[in-house]
Amino acid sequence: MADKVFTPHRLALQNLRRKPYRNLGLAALVGIFSAVLFGGSILNGQLSKGLESLSARLGADVLIVPYGYERVATAALLRGEPSTYYMRKEVLDSIRAVPGVAALTPQFFLASLIDSCCSEHVQIIGFDPESDFLLRPWMQNIITRLGDDEIVVGSKIITSVGDRLFFFGKTYRVAAKMAPTGMGLDTSVFMPLETLYALIRGNPYLPKLLENPHFLQKLDPPEAYISSVAVKVDPGTSPKAVGNAIMLAHAVEYNLDLVIAENIVAETARRLHGLAVSVYWVAAGIWLLAILVISLVFSVSASERKQEMSLYRLLGAQRSWVAGLLRWEAFSICLGGSLAGILVAFCVIFPFSTLIFDGLQLPHLGISGGSIAGYALLTLALSGLSGPLACANTVWSLTRFDVYSSLREAE
């Protein structure tokens, strides 16, 4: 059998087996750093994509809703939280006459029930196909006209085009699925206003919605009501100024409230920035702690390893070989810990992403495999760098001592 060549990396792995518990502890610390950095980067990437989607294709500049429903409307838009609210439809003509309004479109929000009458508990949104400018950019199919029994569903609704869903006892065919938006639209169902009005008219299940037997009487006829008005303003006009003009002229008469789209984007961006900063500060703190602990452990073991290093030198090893051995030991610890941390983060982030993002209450979209690989490589690079960096002082001290004196000290 040919003699084995003892290269630094092969001998480093053998040395690490001699003190497995100490080295596993160091690897675990690096693993925690890697999990935080990799997992935080993935979450931040998905949330950033969601913010880009929200900013680029929100559609409306101003959203007019009934008084007191500003937060409810924002929650429905960002997270798809089912809700039902309405106001008089005649407000459309009044808003249209306000200077600076370029286009508007009404919507009606109706929450389905957790009941045998409905396939799923989702937000049902009625829209006007003639004036709509919010939903069509997201539709994967070009639809000129939906039938009376046809609906469009968000990308996260588990169904396919051609399937049938039922809401409040009525069955509808899925005509199209929307492209992913990263917002609450992904978990919503859409139908033309006329279809929604037909659903509401005389439906025996609807009084359960608000536990109010007079619910249908309040919406008689349902065609006289909507939930919100999405407004586009003229180019170069301030959405805030137009929104304030609408409120000044009609807020009291129609009991209105106001949502400015750019405020939603700004608030979402602020929350996302705060989350990203927190994640990276935590990761930086753990990284510095890992470097400090590894450095301390290697420094403590420096005195007991002087004889070992002296023997390598007497056997003909160069200083660079001895330095490489120590660096490989530190690098192997950090690489193993980093790979384990990335794997743990991967197994937590992706299977439980829905629960995580529901808790964060921020819009999000998936990121590419290339981005995931890039985050993993960055994490591995930083983790691998921490090992040689942490043991730099020990390497210097163990390669600069006098071999003869070190052996005499050990006698």
Quick description:
The chain has 411 residues and is an alpha+beta fold.
Which labels suit this protein?
two-stranded antiparallel ribbon, single chain, elongated, alpha+beta, 2 domains, 411 residues, 14 helices, 11 strands, nine-stranded mixed sheet
Q: What would you say this structure looks like, in words?
A:
53% of the residues lie in helices and 14% in strands. By secondary structure, the protein is an alpha+beta fold. The strands form two sheets. Strands 6-7-5-8-4-3-10-1-11 form a nine-stranded mixed β-sheet, with helices on both faces. Strands 2-9 form a two-stranded antiparallel sheet. Strand 6 and strand 7 form a beta hairpin. The longest helix is centred in the last third of the chain and has 40 residues, at 261-300. The radius of gyration is 31 Å and the shape is elongated. The protein starts with 7 loop residues before the first helix and ends with a helix. The relative contact order is 0.18.
Radius of gyration, in angstroms, nearest whole number: 31 Å
Strand numbers in spatial order across the main sheet: 6-7-5-8-4-3-10-1-11
H/E topology pattern = HHEHEHEEEEEEHHEEHEHHHHHHH
Count of distinct structural domains: 2
The averaged pLDDT comes out at 78
| Proportion of strand residues | 5-15%
Distance between the termini: 36 Å
Biggest beta sheet attributes: 9 strands, mixed
- Low-confidence region ranges: 403-408
| Helix count from the secondary structure assignment | 14
Q: How many strands in all?
A: 11
Q: Which descriptor suits the 3D outline?
A: elongated
| Helix-residue proportion | 40-55%
* Structural class by helix and strand composition: alpha+beta
